[in-house]
Amino acid sequence: MGMKIYTKCPYCKAEISFWSWSKDKVELKMTQSDKIVLTCKKCHKINNCIVDDFRAKESKIAILVGVIVFAIGTPVLLVTLWDYIWLTGYYRVLALLTIILIPSTIYGIINKNDQRRVKLFNQS
After folding, report:
1. Which stretches of the chain are assigned E, i.e. beta strand?
2. In the predicted model, what is the mean pLDDT of residues 76-87?
3. Do 118 and 73 have their domain in common?
4. Which domain covers residue 15, as residue numbers?
5. Which of 1, 8, 56, 110 could form a disulfide with 121 if both were Cys (CB 3.0 to 4.6 A apart)?
6. What is the mean pLDDT of residues 60-77?
């Protein structure tokens, strides 16, 4: 999964960013070289950005996907399994908890994987 990585413009201090499929700075250096030429969108100056100065941030897209899975998944599971929940008798509470836990677990996995990718990139 691609990730947006950032550095600061040396002239105006605005963030300069681009998308990369590299999982760490070593891989980015191997594919791009030690310096990457980027243009600042604020001051329009061309910068030779050093790869070691780049940082990754948590993806808002990954968090959004996780929230959508949780917000849509819970009601869909509840509606789909409603009749089964009421037929199980004593296991109603367990069934309701499972319906909530499945989407929240998926959200947690997406969020944790994104945090791991960011940490890996920033530590390299």
Report:
1. 3-8, 15-20, 35-39, 46-50, 55-56
2. 74
3. yes
4. 3-56
5. 56
6. 80
